[in-house]
Write a structure and sequence with these properties.
Its cofactor is FAD. It is built from twelve helices and 18 strands. By secondary structure, it is an alpha+beta fold. The protein has one domain: FAD/NAD(P)-binding domain (3-Layer(bba) Sandwich). The model has no long low-confidence stretch (mean pLDDT 93).
């Protein structure tokens, strides 16, 4: 049975690797014309890592990542730590895998090597037509290609997704960037670090074995609506958005050689992901806001369950949809939690953060390879 994967991101490549491990012939089609080094950091939890370990990639992923030793929450103006929890060895023992910070490009290189082949580049899928015997894909370069089954891993604006609802704008944008660790005051002490303030927050963590700090700075607003990895902004704009914040934040933003900026979108949970010959994974199936740190991890879980259930797409969807829906909606709620006004709302939020390890245990401790 010939499988086609649309999209060579982390979820699409992992699905292709897992399917090949099960002796399924698979080809990957990618809209980009080159595999350039784009993106910034990715947080990889135990639930995602165990998928990679099951494919024999655990050691390789560890070697290009930073193992995060703790999580800290800081006051936006003073920089004072008001809540922290251990990670590192404690997290790995508790949840069965590490919590890593990894550059997306490094992650992608590991997966491309494991795929042992080059995705078909310059193949932007525009339509998918299913017949009783095959699926016909049409690409913007003029080609039409048939496969037995098609897996849409082509993101929030998926062409494979059979749904006419529009992406939902969160009324929030983010600045993202990478800064050499030695250019940030106290940069070598940063692990998974949150700076929480009214109406905005910043998350930072090391990647590339600690030599770089990845940051994501979230601000409200509707004037910026572009959603693209390639969109750039002036670092001075990011600094201005966090005027009055602790110097560690403003110095981090000012030291960025370049800053990406994009608007944050998700979609309402889908009622149906699959037909007998077509299914979805990752952001194509359940695009979620980044406030749970689970977009990449859920795509990895999808890939593993899809390969285990293949070609029974109905079973795959039945297993995955309830979990991804809960995380997807929870990610929406987290944005408000991180950006509450000062006073009683902050006090209540900070109290909830003291129980964070137990609150997220159902996410990080989950093993999608234990199929029902």
């Amino acid at each position: 049975m010939r499988a086609a994967v649309i999209g060579s991101g982390i979820g699409g490549l992992t699905a292709a690797i897992a399917l090949r491990a099960g002796n399924v012939p698979v080809q990957v089609y990618e809209r980009a014309t080159t595999l350039a080094e784009i993106g910034a950091g990715v947080s990889l939890g135990a639930n995602g890592f165990r998928i990679l370990a099951s494919l024999g990639l655990g050691d390789r992923i560890r070697s290009v990542s930073a193992n995060l030793r703790r999580i800290e929450f800081h006051h936006w103006r003073t920089g004072e730590i008001f809540c922290q929890h251990p990670m590192g060895d404690w997290y790995e023992e508790r949840f069965g895998g590490p919590f890593l910070g990894i550059h997306r490009a490094d992650f992608h290189h590991v997966l491309l090597a494991a795929f042992d082949g080059t995705p078909q580049l310059n193949h932007h899928c525009t339509t998918v037509e299913e017949t009783p015997d095959a699926v016909r894909m049409t690409f913007s370069n003029g080609r039409t290609i048939d496969a037995d089954v098609v897996i849409g891993a082509d993101g929030v604006n998926s062409a494979v997704r059979d749904d006419d609802t529009a992406p939902v704008f969160s009324r929030m944008t983010c600045y993202r960037g990478l800064v050499p660790t030695d250019r940030i005051p106290g940069g070598d002490t940063l692990d998974l670090t949150f700076f929480l303030g009214p109406n905005r927050h910043l998350v930072a963590y090391p990647v590339r074995d600690g030599s770089l700090i990845n940051f994501v700075a979230y601000v409200p607003g509707t004037e910026w609506t572009q959603e693209s990895w390639h969109t750039r902004s002036d670092p001075a704009s990011a600094v201005a958005a966090f005027e009055g914040w602790t110097p560690q934040v403003t110095a981090m933003l000012a030291a960025a050689p370049e800053v990406g900026r994009w608007a944050l979108y998700d979609r309402e949970p889908l009622r149906r992901w699959s037909t007998p010959r077509v299914t979805l994974l990752g952001d194509a199936a359940h695009p979620m806001l980044p406030h749970a740190g689970q977009g990449t991890n859920q795509a990895l879980e999808d890939a593993a369950v899809l390969a285990a259930c293949f070609p029974d797409f109905a079973r795959y969807e039945q297993i995955r949809k309830p979990r991804t829906r809960q995380i997807q909606l929870g990610a929406r709620a987290n944005a408000a939690c991180f950006q509450v006004p000062e006073g009683r709302p902050t006090t209540d939020r900070n109290a909830r953060l003291t129980t964070l390890p137990e609150t997220v245990a159902w996410i990080h401790g989950h093993n999608p390879l234990d199929l029902p």
